[in-house]
Structure formats: structure tokens, C-alpha cells
TrEMBL record:
UniProt keyword annotations, A-Z: Leucine-rich repeat, Membrane, Receptor, Repeat, Transmembrane, Transmembrane helix
Protein name: Receptor-like protein 12
Organism domain of life: Eukaryota
Subcellular compartments: Membrane
Membrane topology qualifier: Single-pass membrane protein
Annotated Pfam families: LRR_1, LRR_8
Originating organism: Rhynchospora pubera
Family as reported in the entry's similarity comment: Belongs to the RLP family.
Amino acid sequence: MFTEINLSNNNNLAIQVNYPGCEIAPSLQLKLLIMSSCNIEQNTLLKPKFLKSQVDLQVLDLSHNKLLGPSPNFLFLNNTKLKYLNLRNNSLVSAMNLQLYPKAPILAIDLSQNNIDGLIPNNISLMFPHLISLNISGNNFSGNVPLSLCKLSNMSFLDLSNNSFSGEIPNCIFTNCTSLWILKLSDNNFNGTIFGVANKLPPSLTRLYLDGNNMTGSFPANLPTYEELSVLDLNGNQLSGPLPQSIGNLYHIRILNLAGNNLDGVIPHQLCNLTSLAYLDLTGNNFNGSMPFCSHPLNISSVYLSSNALVGSSPYHTFNFSTIEILDLSKNQFSGSLHWIGALEAIRLLSLRENQFEGTLSQNICHLNNLRILDLSANNLEGILPLCLFKLPFQAAPGYSDYFWELTNEFNMIGIDSSWEDVSIDVVYPTHDDLQHFSFATKGSFYNFSTVFFGLLSGVDLSRNKFSGLIPPGIRNTNPIQVLNLSHNMLTGPIPKTISHFRHIES
């Protein structure tokens, strides 16, 4: 008799597990039951005759359905063997309460994207002493994080993001949970100083997300070397003060997001030590001065330096321009000519808006065949518009770079390796999502766009400069450029009839 059933991704499947008048559960005993995205409704949990009969069940995945009501405490009764439970993206409304129940052998729980409110049970370490993965993101949990979480010494993945937790993050999470690999506490109401605890990060930690909270304080002058840390996201807090030279100790960091804080001062030369860096976001701080000169410019993919007070001609000596796909220098005090623009061989999004660049637009811009978004507005550029600019394809590339596909693709939380004797569980952790973003003016207003729109929108904004002469009479483009803004310049003459060839234009 088979012991595994996988019916996932059958939205039109009619599933009836409780037959009227039938009190006898089927004799079938499963070890694995996966019914994700099967349009299952509430009765599966409210009248769970079949599930209660499954005494050997080790893996249960009912994610992405229409389950309602409280969390199914019954799953942990009667000497349960359950190791993995996924109820992600349903409509559950209360957390599990197992105060009177025996310890469960479960290793991984995913209750994310439900409507669960209240507190994390104070006895969670007694309920699930073997837990290695807990995801309760996207709910309505509140209150402080209980200290009992710190007793889960085998925990390697913890996601409490997108809730309403408050108070300080317990120090013991960093000191006791020494197996932590990924810690995601984003978008809550946590306060206190981040680096009061960050000096004690678990040695195995690879990704730390504390963005979207109310954390304060500054970077310590003696930031330790974290050998494994590859992602540090502190975006949207209230950090202040300068970046210390010890920022260069994050040798293996790949994603560094410090946007939306109150950091200031000059960006230290030790940034050049971050040779693995692929994504840097310092948007919306108070950094000033010039970017550091690196003897070996960083091979980076995305650079966001918008809304600071940076000066100089460009960060040409900091980053390898041939590898950059996104460069946002908008709303700074950069100046000089754009002679370097042709070096951006891989560029897809280039925003130099609201700086002090001057001179003519180099013909080198016409070699940027991967370009999707170009914003040079509000500078002091002059001269005639190069016709070749409007002959660029402005087409979506076949896909994101391999690096960003790796980072933005959200994997399932679990990989299941079945054998005749048992079901072993190998947790595959979700990765950073929605990395790429940009702001752009269209239809008379500025909008903030996320990753999804990066491959959908294309446009050119050359407004608020000193361009002169005719709009090139040979201008034509049958490719999907959607936004073209040439307003507030010194252009003369008629609007060319060939501009009608912009068939996808929206504004």
C-alpha cells in the first residue's frame, strides 16, 4: 500500500475527505501528504476525521488553500510522528497552544501568510524542542519575543517578519541559538540598539534582516569579522553616525542594505575590502564627500546611492562599471561631464537625476544596448540630442543576471527525500526577494517601482536640462519604449511626424 500522496497544484480538484454519515476513516496510512494549492476549504480542519486517523504522518503540506479557523492542535496529539507542517497562505486565525500536550518531534513549521494574532506561546521550546525552522511571517502576532525561543538551540531558520512584534530583540537569540543560519525580523516594531547584540552574532549566520523597525544606535568602531555573513539588511531604521572602518571586516558580504537611516560622514575606504559585494543600497542617508578610490574596483551588479550629499565626478574608481546593471546616483551633488557613461556595458537602469552634471551627451551612450530606464533629468546637460539614443532597443533582457535570479527566486521551504524506512527532511531556505527597485516619473508623477516592473517598464527622461536644437527628425522607434520626457529644455522646431512610430508610448 502506498504511503505518499502528492496532489499539489490542482486548483480545480474536488476533494472530499469527510463523507456524510461515514464515521469510519480509511485504513490508508500515509507518511507524506502534499495537497498544496488544491482549493481545499475549511472542513478539512474543522472535521478532520481523515487527518486524525493518520498516525504515521510525517510530512503534511496544505499550503495555499482556503483553510479557516484555529491552528490544528490535534495534529500533535497521540504520540504524533509529524516532522514537517506547512499551512502557509491560508486564513488561520489563532496560534497553536499545546500546554497540555506532549512534546512534538516536529522539525519545521510554516504558518506564514495567515491571519494569526496574539502572542508566541511562552512554552514554545517545550512544545517543539527539536524545531530547526519556524516561519510565522505575514501574520498579526504582537508583543515581545518570548525568551523560550532562545532555548531552541538547533534552530537554523527563524522568520518573524511582517508582524507587530515590539520591544527589544532578546540578546539570547544571538548568543544561544548558535545554529542560526537565517534570521528575518523585518517589518515589525522592534526597538533598541542593533549592535548591542550584533557583536554576538551566531558564527553560522549567513543572512540577517532587521529592516523596517525602529532600531537606533550606530555601527561599533570594532565591528567583528563575520566569516559567513552574506546578507545584512538594516534598511528603514534610525541608525546614525558614520560607517566605521571596521565595515571592511564583512569580507563575504554580498548584499548590504543600509538605506533609509540617518547615517552620515564620508564612506570609508575600507568599503573596497568587500570584494564579494554585489548589491549596495545607501539610499536616503546623509553621506557626504567623494566615493573611495579602490585600487581594484568592486565587481558589483547594483549600486543605489540616491538622496545623499555625495560629490565628485562619479564612483568610477570605486566600482567596475562594466559589471553594473543598476546605477542610481540621483539626488546628490555629482558633477562634471558624462564621458564615462559608455563604460556601463551591462547597464539596464541608469538614474543620474538631480545632480550637477554638465556638458554634451556623449555618443558613447548609444552603445548601451541593455538599457531599459535612463533618467538624466534636472542636470545642466546641453547640446543636441543624439539620434542614436532613440535607436536603442529598450527591450527587456532575456532574464535577470544569474546572480539576481539566485537571490530573487523564492524556493519552497522544504525538499523531501523519501526512503523505504523514513522520510528525511532537508530544509531549503527562501532567499532575499524584491531586491531591485527604482523611482521614475511617468504620467506627470513620480512612482516607486519594484522588481516586477523592472522588466516591464522602459523610458527616457531628459527633462529639466539645457538641450537645444531640433528633436532629431529621423527619430523613430518601434520597440517598447513607454515613457519619453523632453520637457523643460531649449528644444526648437516642429515635433517630427516620425515620433508616431513610438507605438508603445504611454506618456
